[in-house]
Each structure stands twice: as C-alpha cells, then as structure tokens.
Specification:
This protein has about 140 residues and is mostly helical. The chain is about 90% helix and about 0% strand. α1 packs antiparallel against α2.
Length: about 140
C-alpha cells in the first residue's frame, strides 16, 4: 500500500517540476515576443527569472521534505525488519537448542538403558552360573565312601 503512495507522490513531484519548467519557458518566450521596450522587457525577464527561481526553491524544499519523510519511513521499516529478524533468529536458536537437548537426552537415556540392561543380564547370568555350578545330584550326608 505504501509503495503505491510512493509512486503517486513521485509522479506528482515529477509533474510539478515539468509544469514549473514549462511555465518558465513559456513565460520567457511570451516576454520575448511581446511588443515592449528593451527596459520593460528586461524588467519582465528579471521578474520571471526571480519567480522561476522562487518556484524552483519551493520545489526543492518540497522535494527535500519528501526525501526526509522517505528516509524516516525507510529507517523505521529497516529497524522493524531487523527487530523481526532478530526475534526470528532467537526463536530458531531456541528451537535448535531444544532439539539438541531432546536429541541428546534420548541418546544418553538409551545408553544408560543399555548399560542397565547389560548389568541386569550379567547379574542373571552370574546368578544362573552360581546355581548351575552347584551339584544337582543328591548328596548323602555321612556317606564318605
């Protein structure tokens, strides 16, 4: 929406400048072809020149104000863009940290679960070896033959 306004404003400024230039040229041509004495003609040309200079200054002042407005708007938009980009970067960094934490935790949890399963299985095997290592045949007490 702002872009359309910028184009229209630039278009108006351009048209105003062309109008002033055309008006000045037309006034000078009209003065040159008007039946007047040399003194009157020079006075009219000087007046037209002063008016043209004044109109040029007004146009330059208007263009300067417009440029300042555009600069200010652009600076604000750039500040907003940088602020938004910084917020997005922080969000992405936080998501990356969170994903890394989630990834690291399941991995370490899996390693710990593996260790615990190994220890539990080792205990079972040791307990089994101890019970299997005992004689399973009937031993008679007092039979020392």
């Amino acid at each position: 929406m702002r872009n359309e306004y910028d184009r229209e404003d630039a278009n108006v400024s351009t048209k105003l400048t062309y109008l002033l230039i055309g008006g000045g040229i037309g006034a000078i041509i009209a003065l040159l072809f008007a039946p007047k004495s040399g003194v009157e003609l020079r006075g009219d040309i000087a007046d037209a020149t002063r008016k043209g200079i004044e109109k040029g200054r007004e146009a330059a002042h208007h263009l300067q104000e417009t440029a300042e407005e555009y600069y200010e708007v652009s600076r604000e938009k750039a500040g907003e863009f940088l602020h938004t980009a910084q917020e997005k970067a922080e969000e992405v960094a936080e998501k990356a940290r969170s994903a890394a934490a989630r990834t690291a935790n399941p991995f370490s949890a899996a390693v710990e679960a593996g260790k615990e399963a190994y220890i539990a299985e080792k205990r079972k095997t040791e307990a089994k070896a101890i019970t299997e290592g005992r004689p399973s045949y009937p031993v008679k007490d007092g039979d020392n033959s």
